[in-house]
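Forwarding these from the shared drive since the link keeps breaking.
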Amino acid sequence: MTDLSRIREIPYNYTSFSDREIFIRYLGEDGWRLHEELRSTRATGRSAKMLFEVLGDMWVVSRNPYLQDDLQDDHKRRRGLLDALNHRLDQFESRAQENTQALQLLQLAREAVIRFGDCFERNNKLRDDVYRALQHITRRDNIDFGGLARVSHATDATDWRVEMPFVVISPDRESEVAAIVSACISCGLSIIPRGGGTGYTGSAVPLDTRAVIINTEKLERLSAVEQTTLPGVEVEVATVSCGAGVVTRRVSELAEQQGLAFAVDPTSQDASTIGGNIAMNAGGKKAVLWGTTLDNLASWRMVTPQGELLEVVRLNHNLGKIHEQPNVTFRLSWRRAGDKTLIRTKTLEIPGTAFRKSGLGKDVTDKFLSGLPGVQKEGCDGLITSATFVLHRMPAHIRTICLEFFGNDLATAVPAIIELKEYVETLPGVLMSGLEHLDERYVKAVKYATKAARRERPKMVLIADIVSDDEAAVTAATEQIIRLANARDAEGFIATSPEARRRFWIDRARTAAISAHTNAFKINEDVVIPLERLADYNLGIERINIEESIRNKLAIKSAVLEYLQGEMPELWHIAAYEESDENSAILKNKQRAATRAVVQASARWQQILELLDEPAAKHHALLTPPEIELIQRDDRLIDMLLRRDLRHSYR
């Protein structure tokens, strides 16, 4: 049977919301229940169509801030729309024929139209309240209720859209932020901090119509590189201070000009901002050597949900990965926003091992970070306004290697990450300053251009920066890495010049794997599992993909069978089709043949799904002769699927 709840009857709905979701938004669960009960009683469907038009008109306005602006400012046009909505409901009532359920649904619809009409005046009043609350805090043109600003801030890199923000505020200075937060709270608005909008977690996506986006992109103060004495550190350290709105790439370029390295370099560094880097605890390819944002922060400032100023200073910084320090200490100082009077202080001492277990590479084990404010909280516990970072000295000689792994067995390729890392660790004076792994799905999604002289794309790509102050040592190390990779059916390439190295890394920045809505995923070291288990992890993920793919295709086959057993009424609309005994016989034969093929394929793949861990050699009946020839020693059916030697098809 067709799932009628998935049919779209509400006009103007070009969103991902179903009719059911829109119904419930306006008429509640009871409204949807009444609609479903009345569906079977439709005669001409005209009453239902008029109700759908009412919902569609309200929905398209609610999803289009430009229409909202037009109606917000034009009382006459707004009145005309409301009259049209009520006219349709009057027509609905005239056709209800005293049907109790229809009249109940009508009442819910009238109440929804009243709420819809009232929202414009409520919005105007709230806009006035916001202007008054902020008039002495920030410039009026920093407060934007316009359609363009609201649309631009309705989603982040996820492209997930739920609600439009009510207003977007872009403070000019760090000193304005605390007062803006307090004013927004007094107006009853939910606050969402936002930087470059490059996050893939949805943390900048408004979930409520009464949300304010505080955009920090104007907080772009960037200091020069300074030699600083940090609390508890005996030597002077190169640092840089920056506002939350500074684009990450700018900090990296500033450091490079001084022969230094900024460790925070996510793939989005050309658009991401420092505030977001801190709130998300961003990493990057350099994290293999110097850790994530957390490891490299000397101090940061933020505004709490109470509108207070909070400064967090790390004491006794180890200038390296945070988990390698036995105890990590932070000093927290809260101040009043207006006169900056000290309210209270607190010292937070956390065991280094609590942050990141040994072998986890870049990510952290404790996502809560033992209550450390700001970092990795995605803006939920306050708004980052500025920070000071530790910079590192980059060795004089850099080589970038690109390893392309081919073949069908990924289990032999993933251990290369560990092998490469362990080999470099044995070399005196040689370091790995960058590491990135692109799996097969990611390689395909970004349309990776294979460097090897092969027609097929690689199964896995590994890119790494090898550095040393000894040019001969770094050259010898990279050449040996290539030889190690060759033993794993891989081809390797070495880039020496800055331009060549940039080209090697360029695929890393192409985050189309996610924007194209694929399930591609860069494993690298962001996964919170030990590196030696990466191969097991990757195979586990691929198995989930395979099992779900088989189930989905079995469901498709079931739907196709249902269709094949029907009357196929769409044939009646084909001009070349003439109904006759001969044509009917031909069609029936084709239906039977198609049904037989789908039934056989469904039975085969249902068995394969149930026997994935069974030895392939015992189930020749489920395999074709070419597939049987590809069976390897101790192969299970799942092993053949993982290698693509067995592919799921309707055939």
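-- next protein --
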Amino acid sequence: LGQLTHVGVSQLLAVGQALRAVYADRLLFNTSTPEDFVVYSTKYRRTLQSALAFLYGFLTPELLHNVVLKESPSLQFCFEDCACPTSDMYLRKFNNEKSKHLNLHPAVLKLVNSASLIVYDVYEKNLASDPHSLRDALLTYVCHGARLPCSTDKSLPTLCVHTDQVSGLLSYIEWEARQYSRSPTLRRACVLRAYGMIRNIVSYLVRIISEKKPKVVLYSGHDKTILYLATALGIAADSTYLSHYASRFIIEVYRSVNKATAAIDSISSDYYFRLLFNGKDMTNRVQFCKNMLNISVINTKGLSQSLFLCPIHTIIQFLHNDYFALFNASNFKDACILHSK
């Protein structure tokens, strides 16, 4: 379970190739150097393998050979802003909320318990009551077209996992994900967990404006990475609460051609960003974005569509002035101390 499967590799290769077709000309890959690409991965083998598979499809062999991968010790890419008792407290509270949800559905709890006896080689109490771990284990069968697992233990009430059980489990998890949007506890936890990553992203946005590089910054992470980031930015949706394999969260940077000759500084209003999750424009959901542009463009199918752009200075101001408003604090340290009880 700890490694990327051949199906996962093929998915990431396809994503890399698709995005190369979109961005290679725009970002002038033919004149790029390895320094134009910054790559981070968490310490897990599957995220490192995901990054390599994606880059193999995304970059030319010459660029790929010289790109340096940097390891992040945390799955939320928190860098210098990791330790936070408040965040831990809110996550514990949220896990309690999830446990209460599950206990209100005894049929699902029974399903998880009985299927766990079949799926896992060694029975562990915490796994036997965790629908998410069971889903991950069962998807290794479903996604590869393999037969669902069976047991040879005749003492078990059922010897095989059935498709209706998988469907029931997935339906419950999808229902549970829809409840996440109502949880202020989860939102607070995500805001704190995502701070280090958003701070890192903003620092690169400023560098892109002032130094014109790097051209691409890649973070190869987890579903929780997307959950924290999307929730903190205020663009959470059912799809970000339960992101599928090979999901991609993209921040594009644009410069207004009408001001191309204007003098710029690190937070110039000439620059804008756009957020896409699995190809869907999520920019218009960003609550802190003021003076958003709505541009009508012709897509590859010849159809008109709206393109939303948010001034980059708004995310910089949000990070510096309003990010910790939920906690009545002005910085990460105070937010983590004031609410740690």
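Confidence is low (pLDDT under 50) at residues 260-267. The beta strands are 37-42, 69-72, 216-220, 249-255, 271-277, 280-281, 293-298, 304-311.

- D.
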